[in-house]
Sequence to fold (1174 residues):
Amino acid sequence: MLAAFLLLPLAGGLLTAFLPDSRKGEARWIALFFTSLAFLISIIMYVMYDNTAGGLQYVETTEWISTDLFTLSFGLGIDGLSAPMILLLGLLSVVAVLISWNISEKTGQYFSWLLLLESAVAGVFLSLDLIQFFLFWELELLPMFMLISRWGTGRKLYSATKFLLYTLAGSALMLAGFLLLGAAGGSFDIQTLTDSPVTDAAIPLGFIFWSIMLAFLVKLPIFPVHTWLPDAHTDAPTAVSVMLAGVLLKMGGYGILRIAVPLLPEVAYDSQTILATLAGITIIWGGVITLRQTDLKRLIAYSSVSHMGYVLLGVSAMNSVGFSGAAFQMFTHGTITGLLFVMVGYVYERTHTRQISEMSGLMHHLPKGGVIMVIAGLASLGLPGLSGFVAEITVFLGALEPHPVATILGVLGVVLSSGYILWTVQRVFQGPPRREWEHLRDSTSWYEWLAVAALLIPIVLFGIYPALLAESIESGILPIAQVMEALEELV
Amino acid sequence: MFLPDIPEFLIWLIYLAPLGSAGVIAVSIFARRTRLANVLPENRAGNIAIVFAVLSWVLGLWTLDMSIGHHGADIGLGEYLWLSIFDLQISFGLGIDGLSAVMIFVVTSIALLVQLYSMGYMEHDPAYSRFFLFMSLFVASMLGLIMASSLLQLFIHWELVGLTSYLLIGFWFDRPSAAAAAKKAFIVTRFGDIGLVLAVTLIWAKTGTFSISEINEMAHVGLISAPILTGFTIGLLAGAAGKSAQFPLHFWLPDAMEGPTPVSSIVHSATMVAAGVYLLARFFPTIEAAPASVSTAIAYVGGFTAIFAASMALVVTDIKRVLAYSTISQLGYMVMAIGLGGYVAAIFHLFTHAFFKSLLFWGAGSVSHATGTFEMPKMGGLRTKMPLTFLTFVIGSLSLSGIFPLAGFWSKDEILLEAWHVDKLLWLVGTIVAFMTALYMFRVIFMTFFGEYKGGDPSGVHHSSEDEAHGNYQGHVTESPPAMGVPMLIGSVAAVILGFAALLHFGEFVEGALPKEMQHFHFHMDSFVLTISTIVALGGIGTAAAIYLANQPSSAVIQDRFPRAHNILRRLYYVNEFAETGVVRMALLNGVARGAEAVDQRVIEPVVNGVGSGTKLLGEALRRTETGQLQSYTSLYMVGVVAVAGGFLVLSGDMLSSIGIDVHAIIDYSFKLLNPKNLIPPK
Fold:
């Protein structure tokens, strides 16, 4: 099953890659078919996953190398932590294909890169082995680079290169960290290293922890290594922004919860104050800069920086509730920001501008789009009843005791988010209608409706009844939570 | 008491009925171009809302009856688990006691009357159905807030009333002022919510529960330490100050008058803005258990707000804004009462105020419906043209001014009495406010209903095309339709008689929600306090008559005599300038945010680009051997990836060992080198 989820998009991508330009119509249907199939599998896996049993399930392993000292294996499996991520990936990939329906330039190649991206990210979430994790982590860069630099807008080559270099710089150290960990623990198997964490290595564990963390912090992104994100988003095509904000950033949070914290729990525990500080700064930093943005897409990008700060804040709590909040936030941010980017694309496709100052009163011309954008915005500012609220309040509940100051900054960040979201709504959708937009038509194509519905449903569903997500997250967080609680008792 | 006990699901229905109404109206809006529109026409939204509101109201009365039977004590209903993650167990349920039963009665009654009024007021608005959709959502959220048994549940609905308030203030969103006011209301109240969120979080972290009754019980018996209680109650106060527009977070409420008048009456005077007072009353046992300085802080915030807002109500010329400042001032009274320990007095005043202030808003709406403006200098002489509006408005004003035996008299005197016993300074403040209240209300009456008609505003404040279509201008001023008149009549009856509830054990009933040891309310009056407050109220009316009716001295003379004071008042103490220009624009946007952006662009970016350029230089060097094209680099990268992956596959196939190279031995050796255990020499 998991191998199918991993390979289906790849197979679809291979098919579309060799389609001639004259048959672009077929490329998107092929892409839609393969991503939908993968999404279906992800739903099945999510539902079938046994939360009460917990642990890794549906494991498929093949050995690569086996010696008396270490084993390298290619393994796939899911647990309560990766199951929601896989579900999110499956969902957003379908959305990405749907909103790419109008791509006309080298359509076949575009979709093959997009599908390769899905496979690569799937590999990251499903990997059971550090080296394998690293390979997929790197593999994801290639399609991203190609998609931004070839199908993007503006300074696309600069942004794509920046994205590439930033990530490579982070991941180079990550590989070193992995090798040292593997050497010290005698295995690259994540589960093995989690069960018996390394206590001694060639260099101090703190160095290893931070060399691994750096890659994840860049990916999230966290201040001060966040500046690649606004550029990458601004110049990327809409679908790529959706994937980037929706699932790629989550690789960072996932890496922290899957690798950095469980493999080096004591170092992680001791680093919590630094992490909380970074989280608090990121939330406020991202929030205030968002206030100043004049480009709609860049605004949402910066808001992402602020929102990913909550993931780190949850992690820094180093307790069960904080971790759960972080995992919640990863999922909900994926759907909410995904929807915001979809709607920015929706507006851009009609107005051909992203400059907020050129818009006003668009609610008159694009009522459907306006209503959905407002709902997405409300979800983003943490309105109860929509899923963002559950994530944020859980993070706060977990983080207040260990990190009161960072939590207060986090709560302040929520007010900032109401500021930039409502101000944006005011400038773009409210106010007197402008003559130049009178020609706009709000007719919405089926693929746009489908993309919006696919994101709106989980936002509302998990907002009203978060228990649907909570069970899986609880079973995924349980192992780390136990380790952390044991550490807490020692202190 | 009279009826059998109401089943629990019917109590839920009080809250779910307006939600259902919103659902039905939403469907009718979405289906307006389909065949369903024949069965469910969009323009029936008002009727739909009324039907559900009646249902809610009837069930609310039944609940009130049951609660009276229980002497106001919590009737104990089920708790339902909503979310469970590790220690975090969040349950929802209904908390029905004397306090919430009274509030349900207030909210469902006002909701019913306001929606009836709106059917007349909003009749010609193109977004008629959207109005009732938002209104129903508001009523549902407000009822959810009141009926919540858990603090988190209360908070969720607290935010939802904030949202619906935002949607309703910005109802005419193409007017820039309405859009700005809506945003301002949401953000300023959310600023106060920082405190509330932290209070919720703190109390859960320390007690592990969200249950309101459990928190109150724990605080009451002394299980929660003083610092925690202080933090928690200050957080509550911050939240209440935002929602109930207490100084310094009061300045969003006057702007909120940009919303349609029915909205102002229910959301921004009778119910939502009273939610802050309700919150404090809900946690009254906790506040009493907290250090005394907290109560003092609450009392002084309320007292200061009461006099501060009343002073601005004296000079504002927009009739709705006068009422808005009056609302802030009266909410200040209530908050002050809570701080003084006058739990019953606060709730009693909330109860009567909801009715007479709604009535006054309906009168203001009726007047503007006829004249097209809210500016009092453009009105005048409406006494004869709109007799019903005039009569009901005067009754409301007398009630608000606290004239015996109208409703406001009883509740206001309870608060002043409480102050007289606890804090003489606050009693003095309260008494001065009573004078100012009578003064500014009768200033409104004389400016609006007496003298010559100044012609209104032909261009209209809003929905101008509608009013013009009715020919409602200049000499054609007529009384409002019955849909508006009936609620005004009912409201004025309420404004007269509700005070007598004090004689019917209102206080004892509301106190039923408190722990037994805290129930000590007995209704009594103090002839001294009563006499003073009646004298000042009559004095206020007399002063207003002198200035605005007889021009002795005229308001112009007063303005000339005190130009600086008048200017400060007219500029509303420069609070808006301070908040919008000073804090938001200068400190936040051009200060912190600009600084952060500059650091991003001038400090972090150069470093990143420096690294990038270094790489580029390396690339330049490599270019001598490469084509320098992007495609080549990419293919090289792919080759690399494939090579690494292939390498692993090859290794696993032991192909290299077949040609005599023992790869495993090499790798083993290198790992031995890296492993610290192997670096330690064997013993």
